From TrEMBL:
Signal peptide interval: none
Keywords on record: Cell membrane, Membrane, Transmembrane, Transmembrane helix
Stated name of the protein: Heme/copper-type cytochrome/quinol oxidase subunit 3
Membrane topology listed for this record: Multi-pass membrane protein
UniProt subcellular location: Cell membrane
Chain ranges of the Heme-copper oxidase subunit III family profile domain: 25-201
Family according to the record: Belongs to the cytochrome c oxidase subunit 3 family.
Transmembrane segment boundaries: 27-48, 68-89, 96-116, 136-163, 175-199
Pfam families recorded: COX3
Amino acid sequence: MSTHHTGALPANPETATLEGKNKVLGFWLFLGAEVVLFGCLFATYIALRNSVPDGPTADEIFKLKTVGWSTFILLTSSLTSVFAIIAMHKQKLGQLLFWLLITVLFGLSFLGLEIYEFVEYVHEGHKFTTSAFSTSFYTLVGFHGAHVAFGICWITLLILQGLKKGLTVVTAPKFYVAALYWHFIDLVWVFIFTVVYLMGKVGH
């Protein structure tokens, strides 16, 4: 197959075929299950966030400057993934892959900051088994971080596939659902930033 798409693609190539429509629909169902899973983790965290018999509290350890940078980086990566899909709809493979690469780089930067943040917390005595609060915190935020890492690997593989197979009605749904996934983990982070960090600093 050519490294570029052959001929003009439909206006919405991600749903131009039945297979593409099924992939998008199936992925929405998957995201529904993810919402339930994260909802359970959020509920557990909220129930346990004040259970700190030993070790530092949220107000003592959270540093909103670091988390603010993490939030800015991840939200910017959501914007670059939007640019990628816009480029896909314009049938510009080079721009699509470029914006996906930028999205991956932002994702790596976010993970780097999160790892730095966790190391700092551990040094301050906020370990996974320190308290019910710390366990629920690392479970929720770490689970989200694992989703970011998975998204980085997924999009990287799609970039390589795009270089090899180009933009077609077969590859377009894969790019599209990967962007949906990235928006989802960005949205989850907004809730984490609000419920975990902001409430941890200003509300008890």
